[in-house]
Amino acid sequence: MYGKLISTSGNTVQIALDDELSINRLTTLANGKRPTVELSVEDGRHITPDQRKKIYALMNDFCAYTGYVPEEAKAYFKSMVEGIFNVEPFSLSNCSVTIASYMITTILDFMFHEDIPFRTKIWDSLPSDFPRVAMCVRHRRCAICLKEHADIDHVTTVGMGRNRNTINHTGMYIEPLCRVHHTIRHAMGIKSFMQRYHLKPIKVTPELAKELHLGRIENEQTIN
């Protein structure tokens, strides 16, 4: 289990756990004896407890959907990370923060692509780990509720009278929103909407503009 350190007094510590603790489960794991626990403090250099928690939670969701066992899933995604990011074989017990972030990104990208469901509780806690909005843009998912076929909403105003099919979108800021959240965004205004949902739009690069076909849209409703 994971949690946050609240206070210390001599050799006594108080920890607020992220999830509720089942005493029956704890007693079973300790075989009826007084449980022994290990305290691991994040040092900023190696994989953090929070990253490790997210990785295993996502792999559990993957296994529940596909029937893979956890060790198979771990080996599979580790090999993907090593191949995609050209890194040496690593262990989730002591890899770097960067490689742990690669692992999270790789698992989520795969689950998005294969339409494998995962718990939104994990998704909601990920923005600081990787470009969440960028992944939603590429998979056309709403950055808030994850619904498919999201609109690519311009945070940078295109302007009236300009042809969205021919203007240069590079440098503009965008976010993917479903119709419901797109409507809410227009009703609330950009600033209030961003603050409420803690969104950070992404800047369109030439590569992203080409990938999303910005500037030659088949359907005018796709870009708003």
From TrEMBL:
Pfam assignment, any one: HNHc_6
InterPro entries for this protein: HNHc_6
Protein name per UniProt: HNHc nuclease
UniProt source species: Limosilactobacillus vaginalis
